[in-house]
Write a structure and sequence with these properties.
The chain has helices at residues 92-101, 119-133, 140-158, 172-184, 192-198, 203-214, 218-233, 241-247, 253-264, 268-271; strands spanning 6-9, 16-23, 26-32, 36-41, 46-52, 55-61, 66-69, 74-79, 83-90, 113-116. With 282 residues, the protein is an alpha+beta fold. The chain has two domains: 6-158, Jelly Rolls (Sandwich), CATH 2.60.120; 172-271, Homeodomain-like (Arc Repressor Mutant, subunit A). α5 crosses α6 (203-214). The longest helix has 19 residues, at 140-158.
Length: 282
């Protein structure tokens, strides 16, 4: 599918990509997409015509309304207005692995739908876009966690099969393996999938088990450990907040400052001991 559109596509995570599109009036017939797509309408209200069962249907798309389009199925649409859309693309492999964790019975199928408003799905898409525009300050694990959550929402709310949610905790041995890996790699951009592979779980199930074990998400835990390491490094008089931020895995000092104020209520500079100047008394 192509059109005279203005597109902005930023770096994708494992299984999920977020992009912005400004599109003029357009029509396409029997387009088969390789990915599952969620379009969030950022424009004012307009009318979308889309084909179902060989006949066009007309749907009003208000601001925030979603277009949910399955992969590998012919899609036909047309509209006569200029549009602005936020588009999240999910890979079939992410959908399948999440469906397996949710214990979806039978074949995985996402229904095509247009015009629905789903605040949670829109919020996740907006969070992915905000992370991109900020330059990925929180690393891969945050974006990939959002991608897994987006896939779960699609299956639970727009799939054809009922799902059951798994529960369980990581064993003490597996938890130690994960915690040690995080501690040894705090300065790195840690992928969620890599953490999950340590204990032989999918990203979705790993995230659920992780939170059930310690009461917080992998992303939140990594941030807290980075802040704690930064607090320790800033206890030296020669410490530089900029260097400490980079050593602890923050892409910029401002990100360290924001998270430290949220978690500890102080700024990095306030933790650095003042150098004392000795005076010689004659």
């Amino acid at each position: 599918m192509s059109s005279a559109s203005h597109d902005v596509t930023l770096q994708s995570w494992q299984g999920v990509k977020i992009s912005y599109h400004s599109i003029p009036p357009y029509e396409f017939q029997d387009y088969v997409a390789p990915l599952y797509s969620i379009d969030v309408n950022l424009s004012s209200s307009y009318h979308l015509e889309w084909k179902k069962g060989g006949r066009y249907q007309r749907t009003q798309m208000i601001t925030g309304a979603l277009c949910i389009m399955p992969a590998h199925e012919p899609l036909s649409m047309r509209w006569s207005s200029n549009l602005e859309n936020l588009v999240a693309d999910l890979s079939p492999s992410l959908i399948l692995s999440t469906a397996d964790d949710l214990k979806v019975r039978g074949e995985v199928e996402i229904r095509e739908s247009h015009g629905q408003v789903d605040a949670q799905i829109s919020h996740i898409c907006q969070a992915l876009w905000a992370e991109c525009k900020a330059g990925y300050p929180t690393g891969r694990v945050f974006g990939e966690s959002l991608g897994v959550a987006l896939a779960a929402c699609l299956l639970q709310r727009h799939g054809t099969q009922a799902t059951t949610t798994p529960s369980g905790q990581l064993s003490p041995r597996k938890w130690k393996q994960v915690a040690d890996f995080i501690e040894d790699n705090l300065e790195e951009n840690i992928p969620l999938e890599e953490l999950a592979q340590i204990v032989g779980l999918s990203p979705f199930y790993f995230t659920r088990c992780f939170k059930a074990t310690i009461g917080t998400t992998p992303h939140q835990y990594i941030i807290s450990r980075r802040v704690e390491r930064a607090r320790h490094l800033l206890s030296r008089p020669e410490a530089s907040p900029t260097q400490v931020a980079l050593q602890c895995g923050f892409s910029h000092q401002s990100h360290l400052t924001r998270h430290m104020k949220q978690l500890l209520g102080v700024t990095p500079a306030s933790l650095i001991p003042r150098k004392t100047v000795s005076k010689n008394v004659l």
